[in-house]
Amino acid sequence: LSEGGVVGDGDDDGAVTIGVLEDRSGEFALVGESKWQASLLAIEELNEAGGVLGEEIEVYDPDPQSDNQRYQELTREAINSENVDALWAGYSSATREAIRPIVNDEEQLYFYTTQYEGGVCDRTTFAMGATARQQLGAVIPYMIEEYGPRIYTIAADYNFGQISGQWVRMLAEENDAEVLGEEYIPLGETDFGSTINNIQGEDPDFVASMLVGDAHTNFYQQRADTGLDVPMASSTTMAQGYEHLRLDPPALEDMYVGVNFMEELETDPAQAFVDDFYEMFPDAPYLNQEAQNNYFSVHMWAEAVEAAGTFDQEEVIAELESGMEVDAPEGTIELDPATHHMTHHMRIGHADENHELTFDEEQYIEPTFLHEVGCDLTSEPEQTQYTPEEFYDEI
Amino acid sequence: MSEKPSLEARLRGPFEGPNTIGNSRRFWLSFVLGTALLAVYPVLFGAYAAESTSVYLVYGLLGVSLAFIWGFCGILSFGQVAFFGVAGYAFGIVSINLASYTGATLGVLTGVAVATLLAALLGYFMFYGGVRDVYVTIITLVVALVLHTFMGQTAGSQWAIGEAALGGFNGMVGVPDLAIGFGTAGLEFAGAMHYYVTLLVLVATVLGLRALVNSQFGYAMVATREDEARTEMFGYNTTFIKFATFTIGGALAGLSGVLFVTWGNYIDPSEFAITAAAMPVIWASIGGRESFVGTIAAAVVIQRIQIGLTGEWALVVVGSLLVIVILAMPDGIAPRVGDAVDYLRNRGGGEPAEPPTATEEVSD
Amino acid sequence: MATSDPTVKESPAVAETGVGTDTILQTRDLRKQFGGLTATDDVDFGIEEGELRCLIGPNGAGKSTFLKLLTGRLEPTAGTIYYDGEEITDLASHERVSRGISIKFQVPSIYPDLSVRENLRIPLQRVEQPSEFDRRTAEILDRFHLAETADETASNLSHGQQQRLEIAMAMTLEPKLMLLDEPVAGLSVEETREIAELLRTINDEDDVAFIVIEHDIDFVETIADRVTVLHQGAIFTEGTIDEVRDDPDVKRIYLGEEQ
Amino acid sequence: MAIYELLNLGFQFLDSFAFIVLATAGLAIIFGMMGIINLAHGEFILVGAYATTLSFHAGLPLPLAMVAGVVATTIFGIVLERTIIHRLYGRLLDSMVVTFGISLVVIQLTRIVFGNSLEQIGTPFGGISYGPYSYSTYRSVVLATCAIATLVGLYVLFTRTDFGVRARATIQDEETARSMGVDTDRMYLSTFAIGSALAGLTGALYAPTITMSPELGTGFLVEAFVAVVVGGPSVILGTPLAGGLLGLVDAVFTNLGGQFIGTVFLLLTAIVAIRVLPDGITGLLEDLREKWRRAE
Amino acid sequence: MLEIDDLAVSYGKTPILRDVDVTVEEGEIVGIMGKNGVGKTTLVKAIMGLLEAADGRIVFDGDVVVDATEAATTDADRGGLGGRIADALGTSTPAGTWVGADERARRGMGYIPQGRDVFPELTVRENLRMGETINEDDSDFRYDDVYEYFPILEERSTQKAGTLSGGQQQMLAIGRALIGNPDLLLLDEPSEGVQPSIVQDITRDLERVNRDLGTTILFVEQNLHVVQNLAERCYAIDKGTIVDELDADRLQSREAVTEYLAV
Ligand SMILES: Nc1ncnc2c1ncn2[C@@H]1O[C@H](COP(=O)(O)OP(=O)(O)OP(=O)(O)O)[C@@H](O)[C@H]1O
Ligand SMILES: Nc1ncnc2c1ncn2[C@@H]1O[C@H](COP(=O)(O)OP(=O)(O)OP(=O)(O)O)[C@@H](O)[C@H]1O
Ligand SMILES: NC(N)=O
Ligand SMILES: [Mg+2]
Ligand SMILES: [Mg+2]
């Protein structure tokens, strides 16, 4: 099984193909579309500059329709039939976990670009997004400081939400705060009346929200209707699904989100990227955080290939593990060889009652959690995901 | 059909009769040819092609489980995926916990048993409770949706059975391959082997069901489908007939679920969702619910098209096809294939028309 | 109304258990209510082995309801049914059929999409070995004058042929008691006569008991051993056709003056 | 304090009740009256919601935008009936496959034309506060009022008017109805149009509260099917009763155990209800009514 | 009142009726008899407009309601794009002149189908209301009149029609047709399944309706007594065509009548 067409060195048909499996329909289309577009932008830039190692890059990009089943089939197809040299795939953590066994079996170089709960320590997987440690680690202490120690957690009911919930508990513990209640809400749920009543019943200082997907957006609208004016901290809003633009103000008033990139970020590299993006996709509704991650990681891969002088995946991985530095739109960032994660510039984005954004407190945060658990892929090639619950006794 | 029991007639005998489409020599020739083509397919196209085709045959089996109960007993279950999914999860739970040949073998048995039991329970609840017609359809759908909702919220770490985490929306990952054996001795069926096992199961199921449907029980099923009240008045326990048929259908759906989960080593709650639940109904409608081969062909082709067609118009094309096929061919394609063959023959002035035959196997 | 008519004979055994020596079917205080409407009103009805009984009575008298109670299609509100020496009140329809009660519904209910041969196979396989199917099918087709139509789809048969097919199917089960609800409604005079002869022959040759509901009084006259008149759910009177015909009360409630 | 929790429950009940009734009404008419299982029901709602939202952004005031939503859905329904659906009368099961196909097409076309989302309309009327709690006025009081008005309207239309009697007669026996002077073709069309209009109304009413995405219709489907089954064959009575029962179950269990428990109990109630009442709530009701009538 | 020329009807490709000529004068009571399956119901349905004619003309009350003669149909080209679009939209009508059943009902045809086709899920009262909606304006015949003929219907006015006994359903079907004040009443075996005394009543009642309201009646029957007592004139039909016409005198002879009911 693991013998069939693994070596994607691009020699067999003369073309170099990379796989970009991003959702353009279904529950995650709203965030997936922009990820796909930014990948195409990066590939076009590479090809215009003469390709990688002189080869034009082709892309295999069917729509997985937010369906994990389909993701699996397409991942097999990408690896075995298309012989992709690198794979970008998936928005949700559930998707990532669904295809990771295949990726592992086939020893496929794989980039996962979504912000996520953290903890993946995997020899062929490179996690480009900010982790919960990086995002919540920035925004939760800030909120405790600003508003007080009483927290209420609402999160999407799957691995991402559950583990993010553990992180909120963990961070509360570290900062002498208290989690009053937690609700894990099934993906697709649209009615938040009782959730809002429960929050009101507990009367927290702020709400930590890790809601995900189209349906969950309804929460913010309903929060505004009922006049629930508790401030919110989040790792998932605005930077991905641009709720601040889709919803009428003041639905997102006092929403604080820990981000490494948003299109509103007013740095020069960020704005240059935004301009290039909208030049290629003038009708795109938004350029989100994940899209930036796709964009810089495609370029980073190309640099690694150039440096290695080959498309051979093992050698490219070795090159990536030598420690790369990239000039990303969010700023210059580094790849941590031991954990295959990025050190990110984390900001706290804040929406006011008119949904105007401001960014506070830029911090440069490393992926420390995996260091703490002892993940070192350069010496020990694992294929695991660690959770804080397993590792810290206090939560 | 012929008077003197030739070897061929004796071979064919148990598998044909007025209740099945396709009783001609032509049908059997295409059936054997189709099966042979499918058997050499991996040799021609390689292990990976076989491996990726395997899942379509699994869907074919799921479709057959519905065609059997719907086409021959008139019970439209919208919840075949419930048995399919439950068996998949059950296999996962057992085989993850007992990571050995014994575990996988037990997993297969448990998976099918759990699906059978669920179908039996549900069937008992419905048929002995006087639920009928479209209400059966909707109850089965609701059961699938309950499972969808339930499995969707099993993300928390409390939802682990031994080593096996149910995983909620994430699904259950790391399910072992299909294997039969005891302890450390046994056979593992991965890749092309999975394909052959599935093909074998599928052909055996089709033949077995054809025999069943043309047996006395089959006549009772058909009579129940045609007019339940009347059939009861001939002394048939129609309630039991429906119950038994439904349970067999559930067991087959369970078997396909086990094959499914061992193919992808993964299963998630979306298998219970309304879109997944609709698919077997669509395969059987399009392929012809009274034709096993037609249903299999429809499952293979439709699923292949869905994966193969990319681009934003794909779903528009698939949806329009469904509408057009049903409007143009209310009984599905299979009966029409026979008609078309006969028509061509008659026009060619050949031999007299035989009874309609089913479509050829579609070999992807 | 007269629930127990002096003409209804009961053996002591019947009084005890509802089972007489020759009695094939006996009901005791059989009652069916739809809401507040009593469709069957404490009926004590008995029929002997091999008897051909007609059940007549005004529209809405409860004849069809009574038959449905006997077959298990409806559950009685109260009362018991004895058949062939045992109580069958709580048996499911198919179990009653297995014990020898067979019914032909009011509307023809053959299997319209199956051929005549396949229609016959449904009851046949209940009672015969597969090796006997062809021989028995031929016999039955012959007896019921359906031979030419053997491979015809049943829905293409004429009304009269459908009626015959249905009786044939019911007879295939070799019942001891046949229940027929308006078997000749809508049939021509000629076809009515054919059916009448058929019923008489079966009754004589096969020793099958019949309960026949019919409004066609001429038909009743040609076939019936005895006639029971139902009225408002209860047994109004019972007797030979002539006795019933001459009963002024029966004329008033049912027959009208012109007969 | 307890009084406030009771109020929570009450508002949640109104919310659930309105949602179930409105999600169901169009489906129930089309299924109960016409024998078409409309798996594209959610997409009819989608059409209503999108048309409302787009009209609103085009400058119409919200009430008028909602009217536009209803009109658009009605036209959509009429076109579908004339081209496709009218061939499916009496073909219950085929109708499912065809409408499933329609649903795929509509969702995807919506996506192609309008992208993955539309800017949402804000919810009017704000919230009602009581003690520490508050609840959306629109989602509870306003929508429940609309739901009740819809039910009353349907009840009157289908039981008190000639149109209603004719529509029901047509569905039961088309040929006889025609020989009683009913233009059955037009009857089917109008009934389908009414069902479509109701789905459009649901879309219009929920447009200010839900995320405008091509898949928004799926969010209504489960409740709608469950309520249709629990309601039983006589939709006019069944829908409000099912809405009431299921709304209560949903509100109580959501209140006790959260969203998930609420949904699971909703579905379990449906299964039990079908088993205990094979003819739905209306079957039970009819039995009772019959008993009572006869007893007089 | 009704004039049928050369009518032919088929089910699919099977011809059922051919060369049927029937004339009914205003105020007449005309019977049609024939054995089973000869096409009586087919004829009545074709008159009512529930079946398409393959050939021939039907004139009702001076207006052509069906013209399927060759002359009429050749003009109306049903092929071509227009025809196909009409088919696709389901708006196609049969060739030539065609007045639909609903319109015929509104113009004064009343129909009582064979086999008690009442609306089973509507109440008795609602079934009657269906009849009434045909002729809302001039209601000579009202609920009260129906109830007078058939008291059981008043008693059961809120019962679902499907749960009535067979005979009760037949009464309802007749009452429902009468309440619409038809000019021409078409009855298909009204005595089937009805108790003898009520058959006699119905016979009398139909005569009364004919006399008092001037309703023309065309009925199909197998019941000898009804044919003899009700019909002023009678057509005999066999193998899909009219084979005889019996006047009042011949109707009184039992042999003459039974000839067409028996072989
Ligand atoms: N399901 C039911 N619900 C309510 N009433 C019913 C039901 N079935 C029958 N009835 C009533 O019970 C009475 C007896 O009906 P049944 O059909 O037994 O009459 P019948 O003697 O067969 O009459 P007919 O000769 O007209 O067929 C009638 O008044 C009928 O309306
Ligand atoms: N829908 C149909 N399709 C095909 N053939 C039909 C159809 N309906 C009736 N027939 C055939 O048409 C012929 C005439 O039927 P029709 O119902 O007009 O007879 P009828 O004279 O009314 O008989 P009856 O006395 O039994 O009511 C019969 O041979 C019948 O089998
Ligand atoms: N990584 C997430 N948001 O699932
Ligand atoms: Mg009766
Ligand atoms: Mg007839």
Overview of this protein structure:
The complex is a heteropentamer of chains A (about 400), B (about 375), C (about 260), D (about 300) and E (about 260). Chain A is built from 13 helices and 16 strands. Chain A has helices at about 30-50, 70-80, 95-105, 130-145, 160-175, 195-200, 220-225, 245, 270-280, 290-310, 315-320, 370-375, 390, and strands at about 15-20, 55-60, 85-90, 110, 120, 125, 150-155, 180-185, 205-210, 230-235, 255-260, 325-330, 330-335, 340-350, 355-365, 385. In chain A, strands 7, 8, 9, 10, 11, 12, 13, 14 and 15 form a nine-stranded mixed sheet that branches. In chain A, strands 2-1-3-4-6 form a five-stranded parallel sheet, sandwiched between helices. In chain A, α2 packs parallel to α3 and α4 (about 130-145) packs across α5. Chain B has about 375 residues and is mainly alpha-helical. Chain B has one domain (about 20-345). Chain B has 14 helices and six strands. Chain B has helices at about 5-10, 25-45, 45-75, 80-95, 100-125, 135-150, 190-215, 215-225, 230, 240-265, 275-285, 290-310, 315-330, 335-345; strands spanning about 160, 165, 170-175, 180, 185-190, 265. The model of chain D has no long low-confidence stretch (mean pLDDT about 85). Chain D has about 300 residues and is mostly helical. Chain E is of the alpha/beta class and about 260 residues long. Chain E has one domain (about 1-260): Rossmann fold. Helix content of chain E is about 40%, strand content about 25%. The longest helix of chain E has 18 residues, at about 195-215. The radius of gyration of chain E is 19 Å and the shape is globular. Classes of the chains: A alpha/beta (about 400), B mainly alpha (about 375), C alpha/beta (about 260), D mainly alpha (about 300), E alpha/beta (about 260). Chains in contact: A-B, A-D, B-C, B-D, C-D, C-E, D-E. At the A-D interface, α1, α6 and α7 of A face α1, α4, β2, α5 and α11 of D. The structure holds adenosine-5'-triphosphate (ATP) (2 copies), urea and magnesium ion (2 copies). One adenosine-5'-triphosphate sits at the interface of chains C and E. Chain C: GO terms for molecular function: ATP binding; ATP hydrolysis activity. Chain C: It holds the Pfam family ABC_tran.
